[in-house]
Amino acid sequence: MDFDAMRDAFPKLIAAVPTTLTLAAVSLCLGFGLAVPLALMRVSKSRLLSGLAYAYVYVIRSTPLLVQMFLIYYGSGQFRAFFEAAGLWVLFRDAWFCAILALTLSTAAYSTEIIRGAIQAVPLGQVEAARAVGMSGVLQFRRVVFPIAMRLALPAYGNEIILMVKSTSLASTITIVEVTGVAKQIISNTFQPVEVFVIAGAIYLSINFIVSRAVTVTEIWLNPHLRTERAIRSTTAAAIH
Amino acid sequence: MDLTQLAWGDAGWGDELARGAVMTFVVATFAFALGILIGSAFAAAKLSRFWGLRLLGDFYTTVVRGVPELLIIFLVFFGGGSMLRYLGNSLFGFEGYVEPPVFVIGILCIGVSAGAYATEVIRAAVLAIPKGQIEAARAIGMGPTLRLRRILIPQAARFALPSMGNVWQYTLKDTSLISVVGLVEIMRAAAVGAGSTKEPFTFYLAAFVLFLLLTSLSNRGFIRAEKWANRGVRSQ
């Protein structure tokens, strides 16, 4: 193992971390914003609405993210004249826009299923109680169903965040230079794949470790009624380490 | 959009794309099989009495599930290439560039990644087997191998089947990543077609549809297999 190569690679890879985090954070936020209405469509009584949402989720989850990204970034070039006429070409020729669009559409589909599962797992008694005190549908959702569903969804959504951090690496295939992109550049210049891999891998692992810790802490913070002495102690210990 | 580009034979790219689809399916199948082997071995390690083996199992699943597959592919492709060059040079005195075999590398990378997910699935399946079953087998004097073959594996396989369907779907989709190092599967075939016809949307849409077909069809296969595996189980 060549430690000098690792020392050289480290600052370059670290410099790319903000790019990776921006891609993940922006698309997770936008994706979540799409997923909540989609999940509501999924649980709605209208067969048309739930069918549409299911079709979207099914198609996105059945195809690789790489195909979706290429379809948006390279595929849009075929309709350049149309996009130019519509004034949208500025967006579609930009790799950042295409990467975030593809990542957003993908995480929206996976999150829809997570949120749908959580909404359906909200105990019926809670909804009945809300109805009994005369809450309207919207108020029921805002005060009872949604907050409880979010707590139930948190562990699965934590996994989705980690998957998204990993998925941002695909943006390197459409010219965005994030951590994996930089790693590939260094590897093809120095031919020292193992050294670069160890550093880049460690960076991704640290990000994902922090994410999973943060999710656990949030879970405990959101579920004060389920807290036990032991859980608190182990989390504070983990946060200190 | 000119769909005649997708015609069969010399006139279009239909047969190239179909061959790509076959390649995707073959690589995914081998990688899935490799994933099951690796997954079984590491599930056994994670359930082992020895802390060293348990640690090894945790290390493998944590690293592979925490690092992007694309990075693993770059490591194995470039790392394997320089190792082959080194071996070729020192053993046969061969100077020059040795292209690493992308087919093997693809199966290896995707298999290792599928193995990490399979490990968790198989571990959970083994833990789902009621303890009494193993005790009963032991009580009538079955040896460890016989216990494994007659009690553990048949039941664990049944419990693991639904989640293994998900692992298969991940595997199938992950094979698209191998295109970045040049294996001619669906994505690569589509990229070649897109490059020479200047119709990227047509070709990536074709790739999209091919993947949709592959996952939908295999999904049906898994649902059938589940029905078959549970035919002797009482249901509500």
Features:
heterodimer, A: 241 residues, mainly alpha, MetI-like fold, 2 domains, flat, B: 236 residues, 8 helices
Tell me what you see in this structure.
The complex is a heterodimer of chains A (241) and B (236). Chain A is mostly helical and 241 residues long. Chain A has two domains: 1-16 and 177-241, no CATH class; 18-172, Orthogonal Bundle (MetI-like fold), CATH 1.10.3720.10. Chain A has helices at 3-15, 17-43, 47-62, 65-73, 80-86, 89-92, 95-121, 124-132, 137-167, 179-190, 193-222, 229-240. The radius of gyration of chain A is 22 Å and the shape is flat. The mean pLDDT of chain A is 90. Chain B is an all-alpha fold and 236 residues long. Chain B has a domain at 22-185: MetI-like (MetI-like fold). Chain B is 77% helix and 0% strand. In chain B, helix 1 (14-46) crosses helix 4, helix 1 (14-46) runs antiparallel to helix 7 and helix 7 (186-197) packs antiparallel against helix 8 (200-229). The model of chain B has no long low-confidence stretch (mean pLDDT 90). The interface between A and B is large, with 40 and 41 residues.
Quick recap of the structure?
The complex is a heterodimer of chains A (241) and B (236). Chain A is mostly helical and 241 residues long.
